[in-house]
Amino acid sequence: MIKKLWPYTAGYRKWILLGVLCSASEAVFELLLPLVMADIVGTGIPAGDVNYILTRGLLMVAMALLSMSLGIGAAFLSSRAGQGFGANLRRAQYDHVQEFSFRNIEKFSTASLVTRLTNDCNMMQMTLMMGMRLLVRAPVMLVSALVLAVSISLKLSRVFLVALPLLLVLIALIIRHVSPMFSTFQERTDGVNLVVQENLSAIRVVKSFVREDYEEEKFKKRNDALRGTAERAFGFVVMNMPIMMLITYGTIIAVMWYGAPLVQAGELDVALLSTFFTYITQVLMSLMMVSMIMMMLTRSVACGKRIIEVLDEVPDIADAHGSRCVVSDGSVDFDHVSFKYNEGSGAWNLQDIDLHIKSGMTVGVIGGTGSAKSTLVQLIPRLYEAQEGTVRVGGRPVKDYTMEQLRSAVSMVLQKNTLFSGTIRENLLWGDANASDAEIQAACEAACAWEFIQRMPEGLDTDLGQGGVNVSGGQKQRLCIARAILRKPRVLILDDSTSAVDTATDAKIRAAFRAQLPDTTKIIIAQRIISVMDADLIVVMDDGRIADMGTHGDLMRNSEIYRDVYQSQQEGADING
User: Fold this and answer.
1) What angle, rounded to 10 degrees, do the helices at 212-264 and 270-312 form?
2) What do you get for the CA distance between the two ends of the chain, in Å?
């Protein structure tokens, strides 16, 4: 895992090295201070040499100040390196996620990806920060204090033969039990994030159905599961400190018990015994620091594995290497295409689709719910990849283009209309960042959006709020259509994107398409036949297959499915009328 994560320390490795040196030097100076103190107590005070005491005292002050400076430097450098490492990890994950297909994103879930980009990265950067301090400081203090303790009294140092193995065994047992709990803890965090994300994004639906109590109960279950896992995991972690303190004080008592006779016999000076107590504390405190960082490492290993899963995920749709193909026209061809969302599934979502659309045509796609209308058009810009057959745009297989080339030529307004926080202008410029006001106005007029934009308080500079909450569903759809038109695409796909506008406005939008986009291929998925009846070609989908296709007149004569849908909609219109 370290091998895979180490490259993301790039740009901060010198800070890591300097921070490690500062931490090690700080520990060394702290260990030397008790020796100077012992020298004052054992030599200066008995001799009554004030000058000697002052000289050694000033040396202690200088060593303490230097140790403090090194500690401040280590803290600064570790913070800088940790934050930089975390930023690199987040950037790498985010950039990689941008390359994911819909299938890759569905594998992880949006909530889990958010947790990995935030919570898990925070844990990794905290581990590096603490590791630079404790993982360096603790071993240096441990080894140095042991050496100094042995140099003072080999007999008393034998207590470490009992204390150290006992501490190591206890640390190993705690880590063994805690490790799987931290993996579960991160999964439970994903679950809580999923509930929160769904609830907040669909808050209007929750309120309209008066399901607040249900959502609160659902959140409570996930939250309680997270709390329970956290209590079990951190319950073991907090046991670490009292156990360590028990062993530490037990060791001190043992040293007092065996050290007192040595002092009485003159084999050991009182000042050195006092110094020995200091080193005992430092040795055992070093082990406690090691245990703390091991606990953190145990949790960070779980987080690191989750981050690596994202970074190692291979996008199942990739750019054609070295491709310089440009989409020459808006022709679209499906050559016996079959597709399924789940590779292991036996059933196909689309099966044997053979469809050929000439550039500039207007094509309507209708069918019942679940007939795979949306799935069909999502293969055109390679949002999903067909398992069998070939999808062509502009006479070339879609695999021959880079994602940027293909998707710049294919504008798609999805079923779920999405606007981003910011102004109307900023949202429309997603279509073309360099579009002039005149081009923006023309696109808005084509989408029948200009009329309501003019009524807005600040026109194009009106703030839409998060997710476009300041506009209605129909207005949101028209803005999304205008944004797509601004790209000047070869192929324009409208996936049921006029469902929230009235039939008169729908007709105006289609008329504008014919007048202003004569060379653009228009593919319109609709529930209302009136929205596609004047199309050059109408495709009737049924259970993942093309049931019929032709003009409105052809289908009225030859397609029972189309005729039944048309008649039911006409009857509904008469009743409503």
Assistant:
1) 150
2) 68
